[in-house]
Specification:
It is a single chain. By secondary structure, the protein is α+β, with helices and mostly antiparallel strands. It has 3 domains: 2-96, no CATH class; 103-197; 199-249, no CATH class. The chain has helices spanning 84-87, 96-99, 107-120, 127-146, 157-176, 178-194, 200-210, 213-221, 229-239, and strands spanning 2-7, 10-22, 29-40, 44-45, 51-52, 61-63, 70-72. The strands form 3 sheets. The chain has a 3-stranded antiparallel beta sheet with strand order 1-2-3. α3 (107-120) runs antiparallel to α4, α4 (127-146) crosses α6 (178-194) and α8 (213-221) packs antiparallel against α9. The protein is globular. The two termini are 33 Å apart. The model is unreliable at 1-11 (pLDDT under 50). The protein binds zinc ion. Zinc ion (ZN) binds next to loops.
Length: 249
């Protein structure tokens, strides 16, 4: 299935491969897809590795449409190659994004709670899965600051005040997750280094966000990507002792 989508002046192509998954809890069959390849013409990339490019996030955790329990998608794919015909007519597997649709007000907090809950329950059975959940938890907490309201309408005091209030509240919420963030980052760094081949810029950013600026500076000094935009932006923020997530541009 080839899908070409245009959103404004940005275009991307995605190649989707239909699959069938079976819920390990209740045995329900669901249709889903694998993302085969895509070309991105525009994306917003952030220091914590998250990209917003309009492509559906490569999701590893599905939610059963019947029993509403989460499961690892790749472990639940039915054997056999082409699932095109078998998947037709089956309900589509849910994921955290659809599940959060029920929570108008505190979607961001629900997302944080979802990943924290899976980690607390020991939902993962490998380093790779743990790293996936910890990265998603990290991104979810950062989302509180990542998506601050920046758009200011031409002199509409009420809306401007609302945006300021919203940003302040999110800042407070973010600070309330500080301890969780640091513990999560510590474990994530451990897994990242253990996995080998750690990207020094990415690792330096993890130390920066954790508030360990000396260690971040030490790692980044050894980097050989000094011409990189990310490098320059990172050095600036480590010097300023700024631990916030930022857009790389
Ligand atoms: Zn189920």
């Amino acid at each position: 299935m080839r899908i070409l989508t245009f959103t404004g002046k940005d275009a991307f192509m995605t190649l989707l491969n239909p699959i069938v998954t079976k819920c390990p809890h209740c045995g329900s069959l669901m249709s889903d897809y694998e993302l085969m390849s895509y070309t991105v013409f525009h994306s917003e990339n952030y220091s914590d590795g998250k990209s917003d490019n309009g492509i559906p996030d490569e999701k590893m955790v599905s939610i059963c449409v019947e029993c509403r329990r989460p499961f690892w998608r790749n472990d639940a794919i039915l054997p056999g190659g082409d699932h095109g015909e078998a998947s037709a007519g089956l309900p589509f597997a849910g994921d955290i994004n659809e599940y959060l649709w029920d929570f108008e007000d505190n979607r961001q907090l629900q997302r944080i709670g979802f990943y924290k809950g899976l980690l607390d329950d020991g939902f993962h059975d490998s380093d790779e899965k743990e790293a996936y959940l910890r990265t998603r938890l990290w991104w979810a907490v950062n989302d509180l600051l990542r998506y601050r309201r920046r758009w200011m309408p031409p002199f509409r005091p009420r809306l401007i005040l609302e945006a300021i209030r919203h940003n302040r509240m999110n800042r407070r919420l973010f600070m309330s997750y500080r301890q969780l963030m640091q513990k999560n980052l510590e474990r994530l760094m451990f897994l990242y280094i253990k996995g080998g081949d750690a990207d020094p810029l990415y690792l330096a950013n993890m130390y920066r966000e954790k508030g360990d600026f000396a260690k971040a500076a030490g790692i980044i000094a050894k980097s050989d990507s000094k011409k990189d935009v990310f490098f320059r932006l990172l050095v600036k923020r480590i010097r300023r002792r700024d631990s916030m997530v930022f857009e790389i541009k």
